[in-house]
Amino acid sequence: MQEYADQIHRCFRCGYCTFPTDYSYFNCPSYRRFRFESYSTAGRLWLTYAWLKGEIDWSEHLAEILYSCTTCKNCVEQCPMKFAGDIVDWIVGARSDMVEKSKIPLEVGRFFEAVQVYGNPLKLPRAERDTWAGGINRYEPGDEYLFYVGCLGSYDENGQRMARGLAELLKQARISFGILGKEEECCGNEVYMLGEMGLFQMLAEKNIQRFKELGVRKIVTLSPHAYNTMKNNYPEFGAGFQVYHYTQLLYDLIKRNMIRFSQNQAKVTYQDPCFLGRYNKIYDEPRQILQGIPGIELVEMERNREDSFCCGGGSGNFVMDLLAGGEEIPSRVRVREAYETGADTLAVACPSCMTMFMDAVKEEGLEDRLTIKDVSQIVNESLPC
Ligand code: SF4
Ligand code: SF4
Question: Which of 276, 286, 358, 269 is CA-nearest to residue 310?
Fold first, then answer.
């Protein structure tokens, strides 16, 4: 951080990225939630820098401010400065520093401990990782795809529904694939974003070794978070797999007529997951899938694609919920925006978005008027009988 002192100073004086391009909303989810400058990108960086320089003392509150960033990359996308691409790296770097000094919020420490002990942040037994997967084959050498399900897909009721739906579609398209079941381990994306680089390396190396032993060449992930880390971080540790998010694979199968539609009837709006959109520029495939279904009308929320608004679940918040409380939490704000489009369905492509919005839609009292559905569920419902 010391070598970035000038940039951080300039950032603190700026604040431009707090808004999207039309200046109508606060677009940093933690600033939107708390409305204090210290929770905006620039304020957070300035405070962290002051701590690293020894100008202020560490406190639990300072650590909470640093960890209230969901690593959504809105600031990176909006920032006009040359150093824009480094901003989230600075935040992750500062978190690493806090981890090394054992100065992290209690919830973050518990998150790491759960991943270490149970192999997932939900503290659920490894033996239960595949209870959702009756009838789905284990990966065998020679299968075309390893379906990496992830922690929410394995344990969360809504994530399990997504995983089953995708597996059903892959079976129908006659794709040879398998899962790792109880042997599957956390991907580590959130551990990385929370700054525990030692634990992240251990998870990445363990996963890569297992994938290599099995002869895996192609991986399809349910979660954009796993997609992101396996595609962008794992190669540093010797991975050379082809990694796909499931919306990419489904789009390809549809283009090749391996999945065909009959009819649906819905007005749908779509949430861009940060780790699919801003991190990996996958904006079109999920939309093209939805637009290709006869009877589906796709309407956009005012904030979409690069300007999209995070659900609040990134960086482990789908478990820790450091932004929790009240009407102004990002997931509730976003559900209201989805409802304002007139859509009856909010489509997601991420199990973290799914779990955040399932809670939010109930808290908003909109569960009878706005249904949260995963893209693969909508595809499943649109197949010929
Ligand atoms: S991240 Fe960029 S746009 Fe945002 S406050 Fe800092 S310098 Fe300004
Ligand atoms: S990454 Fe997202 S949550 Fe973090 S500072 Fe930037 S806009 Fe705010």
Answer: 276
Sign of CA dihedral 364, 365, 370, 374: positive
Pairing of strands 145-148, 345-348: unpaired
371 CA to centre of ligand 1 in angstroms = 36
Of the candidates 336, 328, 324, the residue with the CA atom closest to the CA atom of residue 361? 336
Locate 312 and state its tokens: 């609040």
Residue nearest to atom 2 of ligand 2 (CA): 72
Per-residue b or e along 291-320, where b marks 16 or more CB atoms closer than 10 Å to that residue's CB:
eebeebbbeebebbebbbbbbbbbbbbbbb
Reported as a single tens digit per residue, the pLDDT across 342-355 is 999 999 999 999 99
Place of tokens 């304002």: 340
- Closest ligand to C-alpha of residue 87 is 1
CB of 37 closer than 6 angstroms to any ligand 1 atom: no
- Distance (angstroms) between ligand 1 centre and the Cα of 337 equals 25
Mutate to test the pocket of ligand 2, among 36, 40, 44, 70 (most ligand atoms within 8 A of CB): 70
Find the 40 Cα to ligand 2 centroid distance in Å. Answer: 7
371 contacts 354 by C-beta, under 8 angstroms: no
Domains of the chain and CATH, by start: 2-104 (no CATH), 117-251 (3.40.50), 261-381 (3.40.50.10700)
- As a whole number of angstroms, the distance between CA 60 and CA 143 comes to 48
pLDDT confidence tier of residue 51, bands split at 50, 70 and 90: confident
**pLDDT tens digits, one per residue of 154-193:** 999 999 999 999 999 999 999 999 999 999 999 999 999 9
Alpha-carbon Rg for the chain, nearest whole angstrom, is 20
